[in-house]
Design brief:
Shape: globular
Helix content: 25-40%
Oligomer: single chain
Bound molecules: zinc ion
Strand order of the largest sheet: 1-2-4-3-5-11-6
Order of helices and strands: HHHEEEHEHEEEHEEHEHHHHEHHH
Largest sheet: 7 strands, mixed
Length: about 450
């Protein structure tokens, strides 16, 4: 099982690499993935999927469906790049265009690996006449942590029996454990301008309000559970010292390991904002941008897929690729730590399969909202040097060369074969669903984004 799918992915390798390369050359940020969406739709059509763009009310979301009946399995690709992370395919930090977006999380590989998996699985299901439905999702705005949440709110994942997500990374691994969920909001303060030297008593500073909110938020930190993370950046903070700023805006993330904890702290943060406005005689308007769940990977699917990964042929690397990865490792801020822990002992790129570990993470992903709706795992394969930091120039460099492409194709093979196991033998899906039902029975999905929050539109 899986041989036909793997052979198909290998046969279509050039087409898949070409798509990943085009997305690397043309990185598009969250909700602006116009070209990535179009190119993905073209390929889905070419391979015989029924295609819909602008899916679930998101202009840059693309879906390709094939087959009929159950199981219905989702393949989750991502389309967006990171702002300001432009990087050439070289072994030192050097942007293609200063300040431009870049593939520093390798989402050009994500879209393509899951698309390759869907193409491979379809080929095998057709030939072996296996029943079931494939739904490939080209998802916008993972980096904004809200793309799949808007999709979930609008019903995009309704009716899925299970789903696979894949992400390139430093290791061949399946994620267990819980990563943080989040709420994201901008607090806009509005005051009254005045000459800061001439008649400051007539001014009501919106910047004062924003700063006092930060003071309040930083005191709030002491009285929250240890999983909570609160971070912010200023979006607007006045124009010149001699003008009392009548406008200021601060963007906050509140993260935590459960929706209940996030909602609680977010509500308290809103009180802090209102208090800051009251103190300064300004007004505050809260723009809620969205939120996502904490992750809840399906352990049964994780174990099954890890076993499978162990048995599959891993990529091998040329001397040139290993030298490139080695040079990147040496420039990583994690290098000394990686060396001391023995991480580098088996070479500069991970070629083994990591043990299943319960790792709780401070970061977030909107894959969590799919995991709250159906059994779903995040499969990872090595697409860069083993000591690469997250969201770094090193990841961007590798996402555009053969190291990234080898990991991407291996990821496609793993996801296709794991999905075929679920299509072929009902016992896998039953076990995954039993675990999911047990975990969610007292905790039904409640979308963190209310219906009245608009889907962001492309700004290009
Ligand atoms: Zn990512």
């Amino acid at each position: 099982m899986g041989t036909i799918a793997v052979n198909k992915i290998r046969a279509e390798k050039d087409v898949l690499i070409d798509l990943a390369q085009r997305m690397w050359d043309c990185p598009e940020t969250a909700y602006n993935e116009v070209n990535a969406c179009k190119w993905t739709a073209e390929l889905l059509e070419k391979y015989g999927f029924e295609v819909e763009t602008g899916y679930a009310g998101l202009p840059t979301c693309v879906v390709g469906k094939w087959g009929s009946g159950h199981p219905v399995i989702g393949f989750l690709g991502e389309l967006d790049a990171l702002p300001g992370m432009s990087q050439k395919m070289v072994d030192h930090p050097e942007p293609v265009v200063v300040g431009a977006p870049g593939q520093a999380c390798g989402h050009n590989l994500l879209d393509t690996a899951c698309l390759g998996a869907a193409i491979g699985a379809k080929a095998e299901m057709e030939e072996r006449k296996l029943p079931g439905t494939i739904i490939f999702y080209g998802c916008p705005a993972e980096e904004a942590l809200t793309g799949k949440v808007f999709m979930a709110r609008n019903g995009a994942f309704d009716g899925l029996d299970c789903a696979f997500s894949w992400h390139g990374g430093t290791n061949n691994a399946i994620a267990l454990g819980c990563s943080n969920g989040l709420n994201s909001a901008i607090f806009h303060f509005k005051g009254r301008t005045a000459h800061a030297g001439g008649d400051p008593y007539n001014g009501r500073s919106a910047l004062d309000a924003a700063e006092l909110m930060s003071v309040g938020a930083n005191y709030l930190r002491e009285h929250v559970t240890s999983d909570i993370r609160i971070h912010y950046s200023y979006k607007e903070a006045g124009t010149a010292p001699n003008i009392v700023p009548d406008r200021a805006a601060v963007w906050y993330f509140v993260r935590g390991m459960s929706r209940a904890a996030i909602d609680d702290v977010y509500e308290r943060l809103c009180k802090v904002a209102k208090g800051a406005a009251m103190m300064t005689e300004t007004e505050v308007e809260i723009e809620f941008l969205g939120g996502c769940y904490n992750t809840m990977p399906n352990e049964y699917m994780a174990k099954m897929t890890r076993e499978l990964m162990l048995s599959m042929e891993k990529p091998t690397y040329t001397a040139e690729e290993l030298a490139f990865a080695d040079s990147l490792n040496k420039q990583s801020p994690r290098y000394e730590e990686a060396k001391a822990s023995g991480m580098l002992d088996n070479g500069p790129i991970h070629t083994d399969v990591a043990p299943l570990r319960e790792l709780n993470g401070g970061g977030s992903t909107d894959v969590a909202d799919v995991q709250a709706l159906c059994p779903c795992i995040l499969v990872s394969t090595a697409t860069c040097n083993i000591a690469a930091p997250g969201h770094s120039w090193q990841i961007a460099a590798c996402a555009g060369n053969s190291i990234g492409y080898k990991g991407m194709l291996f990821g496609a093979e793993v996801v296709a074969t794991a999905a075929l196991m679920m299509y072929e033998d009902p016992k896998h899906l039953e076990a995954a669903k039993k675990e999911f039902d047990e975990a969610t029975k007292n905790n039904p999905y409640k979308c963190p984004i209310p219906m009245d929050v608009p889907v962001p539109q492309p700004q290009v």
